[in-house]
């Protein structure tokens, strides 16, 4: 953390105005990796300027992919014509910076016959093991050697289609299988796959490149390997996590925010909860330009309609459930709701630590090891504090806060904006990992915040 990595936030002002979200961080970064599999350039639009994108760009460039900005703002052109090996030292510059490097395994094995993956980074929200990834890669025929400096992989007899069943519908492991199976020889069947909209969008990207992927019912995905893939041109789905984060900010501060680019279809579960809490929203669908009339951009307007907010019980889950990345920002709004709200986190075992900071600001949140308010999950018997009870409404007051991870960090920021007084938020640069231009957006919404 640098001395300048601090935001002074003068809270108590409702956020009002309009902002725009671009392509989803959790699709864009994976689509960039997919470009490695093609033998022609790919073109990706609406790429946000965030650190995760920079890390993936750096790793692609190290491996010989030419990445350049296209004519449109946010357009990237990725040319994989000269894919080459990089040294361990070069790759290790990116150690600890993101979790996306694990997805380079399959594409690099296909292109080069070997891969080196640095130590992973990403948010500290529990142990975040990679056992499903390694098991899957081994089943495809990869030889995986874990070393102190990272992970070395080879594929002495090539990669071959296989039958797999994930113990949990992991987003990353599903993407690992997709990115490996598309060029593997034969058919791969993946059971208990994740089917998040970002995964379906990645499947669209791969299909544009020439892949054959069938999404069956009951989380079964079948991939028929093909000998070669071309490039793609793709406009990604919007970032539904960022959109929900700004929605929560509107509710917690008593404000009114129009989120341009947000789409209803992938946010339905969030919208139901938002309305149950007492938030208001209005969806405007995107309308393409027609002869004689300009098109309109889609947006969702989120606002606090006045009056009291109501407590809710929610459970995070894999798609189509309530996303784990939505809960931290929304919990700040729940501190303002009357009654006892319950949040049962079933995707990550340790994703409620950030509530301590909210308590230091006057919130009343108690975390429990039990599975509260829903179906028992795999963490109940394993002694993890993964359920929270939020008693409200609480008047939040200013505090000094240290940002622990991306989504919790955004929730700290919202809490500081909702609180009376001046808070200092340390480690805000971390928010740049997933929220494009968040400081400019805060300014556009009338927030009073400045560096240091
Ligand atoms: C992705 O992480 C997202 N990250 C996360 O968003 C998101 O919270 C998560 O999916 C769930 O939606 C990216 O897309 C870059 P998982 P991922 O594999 O793929 C366990 C954000 O802030 N597991 O679906 O790493 C794991 O521990 C980030 O944008 C294993 O046990 O998540 C977790 O409990 C945070 N072994 C569960 O599965 C494995 O090998 C779900 O993880 C892999 C996962």
Automatic annotation (TrEMBL):
Keyword Disulfide bond (UniProt): no
Molecular-function GO term, any one: UDP-N-acetylglucosamine 1-carboxyvinyltransferase activity
Residues involved in phosphoenolpyruvate binding: 25-26
EC number per UniProt: 2.5.1.7
Main location as per UniProt: cytoplasm
Domain Enolpyruvate transferase, first and last residues per copy: 10-442
Top-level EC class as recorded in UniProt: transferase
Superkingdom assignment: Bacteria
GO biological process, one term: cell wall organization
Residues the record lists as 2-(S-cysteinyl)pyruvic acid O-phosphothioketal modifications: 123
Compartments it resides in: Cytoplasm
Active site: 123
Pfam family, one: EPSP_synthase
Name listed for the protein in its UniProt record: UDP-N-acetylglucosamine 1-carboxyvinyltransferase
Species whose genome carries this gene: Phytohabitans flavus
Gene that this sequence comes from: murA_1
